[in-house]
Amino acid sequence: MDRRNFIKAAGAVAAAATGPGYVARAAAQGGPIRIGLLAPLTGVVASGGKEMVEGFNLYWNQHGHKVAGREIQVTVEDDASNPNTALEKARRLVEQGNVHMLIGDLLANTGLAVAEYVKGNGVPYFIPIIAADDLTQRKRIPNVVRIAGYAASQMPRPLADWLYKKKGIRKVVTVSQDYTFGHEQCGGFVQTFSELGGKVVGQYWHPLNTQDFSPYLAQIQAANPDIVYAMETGADGTRFIQQWANFGMKGKMPLCGSMNLTDQSIIRNLGAESEGILSAAHFCEGNEAPATQKFVADYEKAYQKLPSLYGFSMYSGAMWLAAAIDAVKGAVEDRPKFLDAVRKVVLTDSPLGRPVRLDEYGEPVYDVFIREVKKRPDGKYWNVPLEVYPNVSQFWHYKPDEYMKQPPYSRSFQGIKG
Amino acid sequence: MTLAITQALNGLTFGALLFLVASGFTLIFGLMRIVNLAHGALYLMGGYIALSVASKSASFALAIGAAAAGIAAVGFVIDRFLLGFVKGYELRQVLLTLGIALFMNDLALVIWGGDTFTVPIPEALRGAASFAGVTYPRYRIFVLGVGIVVFILLWLLVNRTRLGALIRAGVDDAETVEAIGIDIKRVFVATFMLGAALAGVGGALGGAFLSLYPTADSEILVFSLAVVVIGGRGSLWGAVVGSLFVAMLATYGQVWFPELAYFVIFGPMALLLAFRPLGLFGRAA
Amino acid sequence: MTRAIRLRIVLATLALLAAVPLVLPGYPTTLATETLIFATLAMSIDILAGFAGRTPLCHGAIFGVSTYVVLYYVTVANGDPWVGAALGIAAATLTAMVFALLAVRTSGVYFLLVTLALGMVVWGVCLRWTSVTGGENGIRGTVRPAWLGNARDLYYFTLLATGAMTAAMWRFVRSPFGLTLAGIRESETRMRALGYDVPLHLFVGFAVSGFFAGMAGVLYAFFNSFVSPSTVGLAQSVEGLLMAIVGGIGTLFGGLVGAAIIIALENLVSAFTERWMMALGLLFIFTMIFAPSGVLGRVRQALARNGKPRS
């Protein structure tokens, strides 16, 4: 297996090369570029984690494992959906595996832990999936760049806007995993919703990996909102949708959620239970743009399944890295120059079908689709776009300085107006 | 009113599942004085076996049966070939089962992978039933039903059969039972297998509405411990009371006082262990 | 074992440990730092398990409480790391005392269960009291003083601290109080008959054990710059106990041996396969069946069997 041999080789190299000679040798061009890929292969978001690896590898398999004359070596480590494990593995990749850069992680708490670690040693860390707002807002770290990714609160805002204006929704209840990503997605949603005049009649927070949603479903039935916003990722999403259907709520009450809730990694294993759920995202596998459909077809051919957000994001991440490495002609050891190149990349061949670039705060600006889960003729379920909100930045309609004056979203601060 | 009924049902149905798992645990603990820390792993593996069988054969009943038989077999192996080595050393037995749990958990990871799975259930049990102004999942009511049936069967077994009499006698005083000529070892093995089978069935049923994933074993184990400590080891009624208590606390705690949700379960468990280690229904050795 | 021989072994070990950053810089030094920290944890567990005869499954929680307090105090309350360290140790000792109040009346398996439950209570609080502990996110931030920023400096500091704590623990278990604890392990009824206040001794023993676990927690805060509910979880308590058992319950230094074995094994096994947990489980099973007294325990038995007269 790649990883085993790689580690043995790296270990041998490291052992043999301790000392100042190593630094000189490492700086010499020509050796492989070692990328450490952290992904949750076990734990609550294991299904997404596997796809992260698949999406990333798909790009290199399609375009060859070489950029600017240097071989690309990817080492995969399992962060177990756990921040402590993510930190240990990051440490191992950097200190034992001598990787040139880290990429990946899925859950915001794992990303934050690793970001803190690389803050200390300057290793470039790329986070196409970690959506913790602050990493591109108040607590920016120079060597942590969100390539091909998104900020948590960026996506739900158009959804709240659309539901209020187009669907006449006035009362909402949120159910969410109790960690940064959940706080921020809900915060983005309820702040926008309440500023338009909507009412938030309840918010429920549960730990990651909650098996039993019945207590919350009972409360929701009692509160009787116009719609429920369910911020769930991974297995929690699967269980929520199943239990929602089993409680007879499906069809009786509209359901919307984070893009992760209706992500392929979840809905492809469910059936009719997922039909009709609304969400908002920059990636929509039912989008008819030719670039998207080509990507979907390629992915289906390679892995016999429709691509999820995780596969797509890591694919785009690989594309982004390849562009940056090419721009510096392979000299990734010159970190400031490499990071600069990363920030300047404009992804023109993105499967989104439109160019993607970073704003001055290091965060991509996207067209956000309002999506609904529908059944395809071949029986599979996927997200189709209902409407598009063009050029949504992480700051929505707010001015960046003004926005950053408000505290980051948390359990206690959700930005609810009135 | 609807909310109250729904929440009560949530607690009851979860309690039924806990009872299935904890009843096996309490029998093993009560009779053999073994705190089987591998009980959660038995649950999880039972669930996975049911998953595989149900997916291939589309028969839920067969899946449950396979889980029961499969895990009973595992229980036999554990008791005969592993626990036998540390007979008489309570603490070592406990720690041994801990090692078994780690091993089984990883083995399951190898065989079934790290994704979260749900055991497929027959069409008849899906969706919700409406009654008394409440819409409630059919499957959870089914689990409640199974829990009640198993309780009755276990009660009959323990109180109306010879094996049951031997188990009860063994819980009271294993030495004397041996002294009067009964091969207590066979009773032990039978009990362990029964307890394991119950855990396996628990996994099969739980796997359908709570899903199966690599850390599910430690979660259910910890709950089972709380149930058995509160209810008292070796006591079926204790398992019932303990299960309901823990399940209700978990259900209401999650929503009413989410910050203290675990505290409210393990706090009483710790207090009981400190002041009344035999729990509510346990009897002194 | 004569004092002279023991002294030589100790000095040799110290010399070996001191040479690590020079011979194996980089990742191995990081691993060695981690080993020392967990060795301290394992030894603190041994005080209770080996010397007082009560096997606990809660020391991960006690250890982690200290880490949480240090990280919270320094990153959120913007305090001084050394004051934070003192607070962390105090918090851990306090936690141990509270646990002790509830646990000292029990023994054997029930003691195991009480401590397990109490550890779970702490874990539950750390997981769900999001406003203070950060919940799933944990608390992160570099809390070690700037002059320990270098991996090598941190290692030497940890080595010094661990050495000092080991010496202190050794003195403790060899003291009259410590011998009383050992007596309680041998035969509680006898000690009671002799008039010793057993619960009080166990209480103090537990508190002392918690004190040292707390010190390990402080070192961990310095080392990891991050804490999350995993640190106070059951798995952490289990791993600490396993280290103490594999090394040898009742030998104190077994903690160091056990920690070294397990961490080395983990890194070795993980380089070739992902099946580390399976290996750990097998190690546990194997140890319980064939070597319940651990590595140092076996060594001790072997030495005793050789019948060499000790002066």
Proportion in helices of chain A: 40-55%
CATH topology of chain B: ABC transporter involved in vitamin B12 uptake, BtuC
Integer tally of domains of chain A: 2
Quickly name the level 1 CATH class of the largest domain in chain A: Alpha Beta
Q: What integer value in Å does the Rg of chain B equal?
A: 18 Å
Largest sheet entry of chain A: 6 strands, mixed
CATH homologous superfamily heading of the largest domain in chain A: Response regulator
Number of continuous helical runs of chain B: 10
Intertermini distance of chain B: 45 Å
Q: What is the number of strand segments of chain A? A: 13
The overall pLDDT average of chain B reads 88
**Measured distance between first and last alpha carbons of chain A:** 57 Å
Would you count the extended β strands of chain B for me? 2
Specify the structural class of chain A.
alpha/beta
Helices and strands of chain B, in order, run as: HHHHEEHHHHHH
CATH architecture term of the largest domain in chain A: 3-Layer(aba) Sandwich
Q: How much of the polypeptide of chain A forms β-strand, as a percent range? A: 15-25%
Global geometry of chain A: globular
Low-confidence stretches of chain B: none
Whole-number radius of gyration of chain A? 21 Å
The largest β sheet of chain B comes out as:
2 strands, antiparallel
Notes on the structure:
The complex is a heterotrimer of chains A (418), B (285) and C (311). Chain A has 14 helices and 13 strands. Chain A is α/β, with parallel strands linked by helices and 418 residues long. Chain A has a six-stranded mixed beta sheet, with helices on both faces. Chain A has a four-stranded parallel beta sheet with strand order 8-7-9-10, sandwiched between helices. In chain A, strand 4, helix 5 and strand 5 form a beta-alpha-beta unit. In chain A, helix 3 packs across helix 12. In chain A, 58% of the residues are buried. The N terminus of chain A is likely disordered. Chain B has a single domain, classed as Orthogonal Bundle (ABC transporter involved in vitamin B12 uptake, BtuC), CATH 1.10.3470. Helix content of chain B is 75%, strand content 3%. Chain B has ten helices and two strands. In chain B, strand 1 and strand 2 form a beta hairpin. The model of chain B has no long low-confidence stretch (mean pLDDT 88). Helices cover 77% and strands 1% of the residues of chain C. Chain C is globular and about 50 Å long. The model of chain C has no long low-confidence stretch (mean pLDDT 90). At the B-C interface, helix 4, helix 8 and helix 10 of B face helix 4, helix 5, helix 11 and helix 13 of C.
